[in-house]
Design a protein that fits this description.
The complex is a heterodimer of chains A (118) and B (107). Chain A has 118 residues and is mainly β. Helix content of chain A is 0%, strand content 51%. Chain A contains no helices and eleven strands. In chain A, strands 2, 4, 5, 6, 9, 10 and 11 form a seven-stranded mixed sheet that branches. Chain B contains no helices and ten strands. In chain B, the strands form two sheets. Chain B has a five-stranded antiparallel sheet with strand order 1-3-8-7-6, with no helix packed on it. Classes of the chains: A mainly beta (118), B mainly beta (107). At the A-B interface, strand 9 and strand 10 of A face strand 5 of B.
């Protein structure tokens, strides 16, 4: 299957700082990537759909000015959590579809980034 | 967001038994369905995809889709302790997940 990586795998930051998370498709081109967030013992919540070369589409209730998404190339999307606060502490997971592959409809997930805001 | 519903469990089965996981969905327009497995603290891993009515088998896993009744299921044969995880179903793209079903396989 297609491989998606994320960096960093975990990060601890102070309240008020910004944190950037990278999501890369390693062996395929991803015109669309997705960002999810998961709090402990809860389900994955879709935050936004990231489209290469255009603005991201955010789900209802997700602040676009707080969670900045940039999809500048076919293999890289970034999520920046601006002015992070303790309530932003969560597990952030990206995924991507391999549009050019045989399994074009399948979404492959990165390993996730655990963010802790002190 | 489009809804999928799963019994959150936990579902406990003895080792070697068949585990049956079920999911219903509300969007009749959904064309494709996926089962993911998520271990605690890890990201989801795709284990099965199904697009047509009927059964699809892959090793110990069988996915079943019934579009008329709007449900999709996953059977795990010869369940192993390593199958203990949360199983998530989702349809279409972008994937929207329910709470998942927690499976516990008891040795």
């Amino acid at each position: 299957g297609a491989v998606v990586s994320q960096h960093p795998s975990w990060v601890i930051c102070k309240s008020g700082t910004s944190v950037k998370i990278e999501c890369r498709s390693l062996d395929f081109q991803a015109t669309t990537m997705f960002w999810y967030r998961q709090f402990p013992k809860q389900s994955l919540m879709l935050m936004a759909t990231s489209n290469e070369g255009s603005k991201a589409t955010y789900e209802q209730g997700v602040e676009k000015d707080k969670f900045l998404i940039n999809h500048a190339s076919l293999t890289l999307s970034t999520l920046t959590v601006t002015s992070a606060h303790p309530e932003d502490s969560s597990f952030y997971i990206c995924s991507a579809r391999d549009w050019g592959g045989a399994s074009y409809n399948e979404q492959f997930f990165g390993p996730g980034t655990r963010l802790t805001v002190l | 967001q489009k809804e999928v519903e799963q019994n959150s469990g936990p579902l406990s089965v003895p080792e070697g038994a068949i585990a049956s996981l079920n999911c219903t969905y509300s969007d009749r327009g959904s064309q494709s369905f996926f089962w993911y497995r998520q271990y605690s603290g890890k990201s989801p891993e795709l284990i099965m995809s199904i697009y047509s009515n009927g059964d699809k088998e892959d090793g110990r896993f069988t996915a079943q889709l019934n579009k008329a009744s709007q449900y999709v299921s996953l059977l795990i044969r010869d369940s192993q302790p390593s199958d203990s995880a949360t199983y998530l179903c989702a349809g279409n793209t972008p994937l929207v997940f329910g709470k998942g079903t927690r499976l516990s396989v008891i040795a």
